[in-house]
Every structure is written in C-alpha cells, then in structure tokens.
Fold this sequence. Notes:
Blueprint: H1 29-44, H2 141-152
Amino acid sequence: MAEPVTSLDPNGKPDAKAAPELTWKTLTPAELAAALASHERFVKGIPGGRRALLAHHSFEGADFTGRNLTEIDLVGAKLAACQFRKVKMARANLFAADLRRASLDGADLTRSDLRGAAFRGASLNGAILRSEEHTSELQSPMYLVCRLLLEKK
C-alpha cells in the first residue's frame, strides 16, 4: 500500500501543517477475486462470508460483470471504465465513487447511495435506479436526468 504523499515546506522538509494527499489502495487480481467471492458468500448468508469494504480503493478498468455486489462498500472508489453489466448492487454504498465511462448496463442499483458519484460518460442502459419504498431521492435534478435518459430508450 502506498504511503501518503506529504507537502514540503520552503526548506524542502516535510510540512507538518499540511494534510497528506488522499491515496487509493489497490488489490492484486487474486486479492480482489477472493474479496468478491467472500462478499458473495456474505450476501447468500453462507458461513465464512464477509462484506467487502473497499472504500477508497482503485479498480479502474476492472470487470465485475454478473457479480452479486449487494450492500458492497465502494465509498470514494475509483471505478472509471469498469464493467458492471448485469451486476446486482442493491443497497450498495457508492457515495462519491468515480464511475466515469463505466458500463452499468442492466445493473440493479436499487436503493444504492449514489450521492456525489461521477457518472460522466457512463452507460446506464436498462439500469435500475429506484427506491423500493418511495422515489423521493430520485426527484433531484441530477437523478431526474438519469431517469429521463433511461425512460427515453
């Protein structure tokens, strides 16, 4: 895991007052596969399963197609250009996630936290963006645009 980068003062020494810059964690493909397999066991209620807590990780370009990622934690994750086709992500936490250019075609994002997520250039054809209880959170202008684009097809 990378160490946080610190700012330097005018003398070239680490500036104790400056906050470290945000860095994203990475996993090897084997570590990611193990974490997702454990998460899918968690979702199914199988003993030994564990929720994937992948906040502030970078998975740019990864393929999650067909996975069951219900209730996964991807807060602030870098997910640009990832493949999420036909993924179950109900109640997922995607707060402030970077989903630019991601393919979410046919993904189920029911009751997921999408606040602050970046979707520029993302494909959401056939994606489910609804709340089971009510649709008030989908009435904000940002979500209304997504809903209108989905209904247009």
